[in-house]
């Protein structure tokens, strides 16, 4: 493992990743700082971040990085573009590839065709960015090869004319959450809140979490800490879970029909706290 990769984040399973940092492949200087950040998962971005004239060079840059010790996800260009096939052909041989994020996913077969061009078992994260993609989310979530769903907020808003008000985007977010559950996937990844840090980003994470989403994209390394905090169990939740589990272990009696669901929630919070290293935070 390259020494610049954050060891805590590198050890965390991607199904639990909260912060997903997009690092532009337009300049290899973006890669190392992203990998050293607190991002749970890093995505080298060959799509939105790279103009058409720079696609081939960006692809070479990414493959070189993933062949010389770096490990990361890669956002590849959509299946309808001229770059998709070349992206996958190059990445299929890159030893440091953790998985791909497929831009502009609208149909389930797009994920399957992408997975088939990669090494067996390479996860595909479906980035849903349009009205058609949202309406097909359940089928996409159930497609062979789909690892997790993500919400491309900016392109979805351009496609539909929706504002960034949480109410305007509630249907799309809910659709991805329900689709993920039906497809037995981890919780979906929300889109970025561009330019936000501090309290503004923590507030955005409250919306993400309240909708049932468990990850969030971001464009700045400085945003990762806030997302990790905002999408983790709170101190009060961890304390509650700890107390309930201790009482259960000591022989607490099931009192009513709500006990078993509360116990399951406490066990989930405890497991997440362990995975994120929060018990002593």
From TrEMBL:
What sequence ranges are listed for the domain HpcH/HpaI aldolase/citrate lyase?
22-185
Q: Does the keyword tRNA processing apply?
A: no
The signal sequence is 1-25
The protein's UniProt keywords, in alphabetical order, are: Lyase, Magnesium, Metal-binding, Signal
Listed cofactors? Mg(2+)
- Gene Ontology MF term list: lyase activity
Matches recorded under InterPro entries: Aldolase/citrate-lyase_domain (IPR005000), Citrate_lyase_beta/mcl1/mcl2 (IPR011206), Pyrv/PenolPyrv_kinase-like_dom (IPR015813), Pyrv_kinase-like_dom_sf (IPR040442)
| PANTHER family the record matches | CITRATE LYASE SUBUNIT BETA, LYASE BETA SUBUNIT, PUTATIVE (AFU_ORTHOLOGUE AFUA_4G13030)-RELATED
Protein name listed in UniProt: CoA ester lyase
Q: Which organism is it from?
A: Arthrobacter jinronghuae
């Amino acid at each position: 493992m390259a020494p610049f990769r954050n060891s805590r984040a590198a050890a965390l399973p991607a199904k639990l990743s909260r912060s997903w940092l997009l690092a532009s492949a337009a300049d290899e200087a973006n890669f190392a700082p992203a990998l050293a950040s607190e991002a749970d998962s890093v995505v080298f971005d060959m799509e939105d971040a790279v103009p058409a004239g720079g696609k081939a060079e960006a692809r070479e840059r990414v493959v070189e990085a993933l062949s010389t010790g770096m490990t990361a996800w890669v956002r590849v260009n959509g299946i309808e573009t001229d770059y998709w096939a070349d992206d996958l052909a190059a990445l299929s041989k890159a030893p440091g590839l953790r998985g791909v994020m497929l831009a502009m996913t609208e149909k389930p077969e797009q994920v399957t065709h992408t997975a088939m061009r990669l090494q067996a078992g390479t996860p595909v994260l479906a980035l849903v960015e349009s009205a058609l993609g949202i309406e097909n989310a359940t089928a996409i979530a159930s497609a062979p090869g789909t690892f997790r769903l993500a919400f491309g907020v900016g392109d979805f808003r351009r496609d539909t004319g929706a504002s960034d008000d949480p109410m305007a985007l509630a249907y799309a977010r809910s659709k991805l959450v329900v689709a993920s559950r039906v497809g037995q996937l981890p919780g979906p990844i929300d889109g970025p809140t561009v330019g936000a840090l501090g309290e503004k980003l923590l507030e955005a994470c409250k919306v993400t979490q309240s909708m049932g989403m468990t990850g969030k994209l971001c464009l700045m390394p400085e945003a990762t800490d806030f997302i990790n905090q905002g999408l983790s169990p709170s101190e009060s939740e961890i304390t509650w879970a700890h107390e309930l589990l201790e009482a259960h272990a000591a022989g607490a009696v099931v009192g009513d029909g709500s006990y078993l669901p509360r116990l399951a929630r406490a066990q989930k919070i405890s497991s997440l706290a362990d995975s994120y290293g929060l018990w002593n935070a």
